[in-house]
Amino acid sequence: MEASLSMVFQDDYLVAINKPSGLLVHRSPIDRHETRFAVQLLRDQLGGQWVYPVHRLDKPTSGLLLFALSPEIARQVSEAFTLGEVSKTYLAVVRGHAPLERFIDHPLEDEVDHAGRRIADGVAREALTSLSCLQHWTVPMPVDRYPEGRYSLVELRPQTGRHRQLRRHMKHISHPIIGDTRYGKGSHNRFFREHFNSHRLLLHAQGLELQHPVTAEPLLLEAKLDQDFAGVVNGLRAASS
């Protein structure tokens, strides 16, 4: 029996779930072999109710995923995302001791088109991310050529919505997200698999803040860290104490 998706919010117009890492939002030509999708799972869970995703999360990213229950509401909320009227907050574990505060202004070239097809020479577009460091850890175990491992828990607030923006921005400032097999470093990913049993990207969409499309009231949504992510954070605290 398929496990139920964790519901964060639901009313007559919107539904928000806490998407697990490794689950696609919908079918993609990049992952043709996948058979499980958040759209279909949520529709089945709601008794056949059609749902319409209003934004996206990468397959390996966990956390808040918002759906509309009608095409009209979906268009309205999607436009709010496009116009930057939705505040998004992410948590990530990254390599190194990250700066306490940093504003990342680094344009990113398009990597895929609207259908998910890879682009060889994309257009560079404005990409902005705010970073706040919540905690530093120093783990007294050798990693790569260093006698100890240094890591950070950071809060990331993207102000634009480019493809894989947070993962690419963290690589750009030399603090790649742990578990990122595309933009990260294999030695650190292996260290987390071996010492913390972590086999996922440590990036979590924690918060969304927007105006409700019907009531116009502020809507504040928060998704708790899943057991895997929280277990890594607790393991880092214990290992560095």
Structure description:
The protein is globular. The longest helix has 14 residues, at 227-240. The mean pLDDT is 92. It has 5 helices and 12 strands. It has helices at residues 38-45, 71-82, 165-172, 186-196, 227-240, and strands at 6-10, 14-19, 52-53, 62-68, 87-95, 101-105, 108-109, 124-125, 128-139, 149-158, 203-211, 218-222. It starts with 5 loop residues before the first strand and ends with a helix. It has one domain (6-240): Pseudouridine synthase (2-Layer Sandwich). A hairpin with an 8-residue loop joins strand 3 (52-53) and strand 4 (62-68). The strands form 2 sheets. Strands 1, 2, 3, 4, 5, 6, 9, 10, 11 and 12 form a 10-stranded mixed beta sheet that branches. Strands 7-8 form a two-stranded antiparallel sheet. By secondary structure, it is an alpha+beta fold.
Q: Measured on Cα atoms, how large is the radius of gyration?
A: 18 Å
Order of helices and strands: EEHEEHEEEEEEHHEEH
Q: Structural class from helices and strands?
A: alpha+beta
- Provide mean pLDDT, rounded: 92
Q: Kindly report the oligomeric state of this protein.
A: single chain
Number of helices: 5
The CATH superfamily is identified as Pseudouridine synthase
User: Looking at the structure, what is the overall shape?
Assistant: globular
- Indicate the CATH topology: Pseudouridine synthase
Distance between the termini: 41 Å
Number of strands: 12
